Amino acid sequence: MRNLLQAMKDGYGLLTGEGQFLVFFLLALYILWFFKKNEIKELKRYATVMLLFLLFPLTAKGLMLYATAFYGYAELWVLLPVTLVTGFMFTGFTFEWAPELPFLRKYPVRREAVCIAAMAVLLFLCGTLSVKTQVASMGHVLPKETEEILEEYVCDGIPEGEKVWLLAPDDIMAYARTYDGRICLPYGRFLWEKELSAYTYDSYAADTAELHGWVNGTLTGMDEVEISENYLSMCSSKEITVLVFEKERLTTDGLAEALDKQDSYRHAGETDRYVVYRLAERQDA
Prior knowledge:
The protein is an alpha/beta fold. The chain has helices at residues 2-16, 21-35, 41-55, 57-66, 73-76, 82-97, 108-125, 144-154, 170-179, 206-215, 224-237, 255-261, 280-284; strands spanning 164-167, 183-184, 242-246, 265-270, 274-279.
């Protein structure tokens, strides 16, 4: 329950930023209930019920489960008809209520222009309706070592109009497409983050899942050298341009021996944690 309450707090902040768009929506809904009692009843009822559902933890959790937990709490706020309710209130204020104001009654054209300009300023000051995200996936800043690999060993020297295929541990693959759209991956994040596939129920073939296990060092059950030789050959045949491994694997399984036996990939560089190999024909080019 504590985590859900924190998510509710964070979700509201992510959606509104430093502005108060939702507060303005509440004001508009209040005005419509009391000054438009016999109009747009369905819209007012829907907006009120959905607002209550989002504000109470149990019903908010129910909405997330209904969406198969694919969406977070912040994204659920798009269920509120914010723009429709505020737009309806703005229109009523500009063309129905403002003309009754004494200081605007004598200037019909000016009053509409003044009202529209005032409402536009208020909208700009009320924040956005887009969930805020940071540069990289999962809402985190791109790790320095990951950025170094992507910049120096993956994206460096990509010919104009071409793409580069990357196979790497999850910590790097998660950020690759965010960093540069020219990077192609043999599988996506929802292979190892099962909750991301809850909406589409997509799945990968068994050999792709085994490829993921091999590059992350979690595939077992066969001769380790033979496993690595087979997958290195497969990566070469599929023209996977760049391979990245955790450096400690070179001393703990048969990967190092398999790399020494093959000639398709050449050592391209390394960081404190990772070692990078590049397809030989691409490296020569």
